[in-house]
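S2.1 Query sequence (Diacylglycerol kinase family enzyme)
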Amino acid sequence: MRVRALFISNPQATTTTARSRDVIVRALASDIELDVAQTEYRDHAKEMARKAADEGYELVVSLGGDGTVNEVVNGLLSVPDEAKRPAYAALPGGSANVFIRALGLPSDPIEATGAVLEALRTGSRRTVGLGQIDEPGDGRYFTFCAGFGWDADVVHEVERQRRRGRRASPLLYTSIATQLFLKGGVGRDPSLSVEVPGREPVRDLYFALVTNTTPWTYAGAVAVQPTPRSRFELGLDVLAMTRMNTPVAAGVLRRMLSERGVPPQGRGYLTWHDQSEFTIRSRRPRAFQIDGEYLGHRKRVNFRSIPKALRMVG
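Output structure tokens follow.
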């Protein structure tokens, strides 16, 4: 009996075309019973993934970027624990595809489709842990990263530029990050603090990254690793800047781009590894993002690690 699957594609995804989507759909439909749907608005993929569970689909496949992945994941995990959730297979269609590449899948969507089909034939499955923000009963999940401060400011500005018609790309992210840093605001706002249960709060931090895996992102083909020990199988990692000037930032960035990534200890930053829960606060509202999506300005976010949260194919 063939697997019944729902294929969700984002027609606005950065690196896919109608032709490549057709090729992928035909390849999948040759092995599984496939229904096809396209997203039409924000959170549509979340709604469709939740409905797929209600309608008894065994598998959800998505084609899109990290935003599409985040929506599908949150839709699937909105299904009660006692209900049967579909397995999930994610195909890359965005500019970075961090979660998919961190899973070890090819960055080319056609090749990734081949890998998923092979996994379906062999019965290969894996479970991955996720991060969750705010309260357990009403929280949102993230797959690979969250950020408070500078990187969230960058994501916010990229979203504004995309609404004006610009295409998201590593160059756009890098350009905006550099512009914001050179304006000087990043280095003049040590308003953040990290609070880990059982420890004294660490205050006067300039910005903080929370990761569920490594890398945090990609600069083209180069992995950017602020927390190289972070893994889907462990709790959450954090890197926070205690100083923010050009020499310190350049040194940390150089290490992020290196093969080994940023060491656990060093000048101008602190790290926390394999944490099950913690809180990040700000003395004033600061930009906040998860999985490359701006979620507004916040003064407090609670974080939890959710082990073995998601069943993946591939």
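The longest strand covers residues 293-313. The chain is about 30% helix and 35% strand.
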